[in-house]
Predict the structure.
Amino acid sequence: MLVLSFESSCDETACAVLEMSEGTREVKSNIIASSVDIQALYGGVVPEIASRAHIEAISKITYEALDVAGVTIKDIDLIAVTNGPGLIGALLVGVNFAKSLAFANNIPLVPVDHIKGHVAANYLTHKKLEPPFLSLVVSGGHTSFFDVKSYTGFDEIAATRDDAVGECFDKIGRVMGLPYPGGAMVDKLASQGDKHAISFPSPSINKDTLDFSFSGLKTAVINYLNTKNQKGEEISPADVCASVTYSITEAITQKVRDALNKTEYKKIVLAGGVSANSHIREALSTLARETNTEFYAPELSLCGDNAAMIGAQGYYEYLDGARADEALNAYPS
């Protein structure tokens, strides 16, 4: 089955073509047009600008995705599109384009949850991965544990109570004056600093829950930076990044250990944009070896928002009977 898929939940406009079957998970094309350079001027994503960028790019990248895959719209068996969660204006561009394309060409249309799509990126990297398993989704908008019972059956068992881990990394990077998005630079600088140089609070709430809270950590780092600046004292960006990353990585590792014990799974699947963080990947890989657990993470090119992951999840949603009609809408949360 050839799947044409679209993703437009934030500032990436993406289109992909996949060949999916019981024994095949092949990405034939995966095109991404990002407005990150424009968003960097404002230090973060401006929803209206992102929506306009999607409108400008979506038709072009669709032609490109089909061309790179060596197929035409007449060859497509299924169209999948992210319909939430995300920025409502951005989502509506993808949903309406995919809906029009599907019904104009009499092709089945399937809506896909963005979070499930991130988990499905692992199916494209690890061709033999199958549910059930425990998944941790870490991104700019989400930090959640899921009990993935089947390809389409997800139960959220814990989450952040306020900010997401990606938002925390990016906000700290912005306050430090690092290039946008700050998370990638924080990851890089953390490798050059002393992780024990500064004691920051843990985003782990307590031992009785698997939930996180990143707002306190973010505030503590901002207060530390402001106090140093007011006193005219030197700040080591590498030490700050290393200490923040250590606090976050230690908390995530402990919560994953607790979640594995609670669910008794022997497979942990990492997903989302922050799954590209080298320190988190290394820590969870080490934990997996210590606990005789299988650890999975997407290849780096599939960690961020992309349409290939949406196509993979869309295929399994289709097999489970999901279909959309002309009333398909987007939802922001």
